[in-house]
Amino acid sequence: MGVVNNVYMRNFSNKPRVAYRVQILSLLFLPLFFVGACEKESITLTCLPESRQLSDIVSVEGYADTPEEASKLKKVTISDKLKKLQARCDNNRLVDAGGKEIRFYNLQYVCGGAAPPEEFVSQQREEIAALEKKYTLITMTCNPGGIPYP
């Protein structure tokens, strides 16, 4: 900022002066930042399906062997996902930032326990792929606790 200081930031007495213009602009835009931050923190959507709640678990990062360990795992909620997608209601439809409708899908055959037949797994993959072409899909875990099945 040396060149800028020498050319633009000096008054006639050759003493540097404070760049008030930058301070004024930052004060003007600061409230806008806080308004946007507050809107994204508290999400309320009237078009969320009745069968869903914002606190429902979408996924769990990791696995645990005991309930105590499971309580420490990071759980991603519907609220977290909708904030990330910048979801909103549009004509009573839940849509993402781009206007694509959001749908929920319950995973069924990837939750642990005995391995399901391959035909069920491939059928679920095909179903998910078909839905993702038309919708933004939020796949709901069938193991919200994060504890592996025996």
Task: Chart the SSEs and their pairings.
Elements: H1 2-8, H2 20-41, E1 57-61, H3 67-70, E2 74-77, H4 78-85, E3 88-90, E4 93-95, E5 102-106, H5 118-134, E6 136-140
Outline the structure in words:
This protein is α+β, with helices and mostly antiparallel strands. The chain is built from 5 helices and 6 strands. The strands form 3 sheets. Strands 1-2 form a two-stranded antiparallel ribbon. A two-stranded antiparallel ribbon has the order 3-4. Strands 5-6 form a two-stranded parallel sheet. A hairpin with a 2-residue loop joins strand 3 and strand 4. The protein is flat.
Q: What class do helices, strands and sheet pairing give?
A: alpha+beta
Strand order of the largest sheet: 1-2
Mean pLDDT: 76
Helix segment count?
Answer: 5
**Strand fraction band?**
15-25%
User: What is the general shape?
Assistant: flat
Radius of gyration (Å): 25 Å
Distance between the termini: 64 Å
Q: How many strand units?
A: 6
Low-confidence stretches: 1-10, 30-41
Major sheet, described briefly? 2 strands, antiparallel
Q: Percentage of helical residues?
A: 25-40%
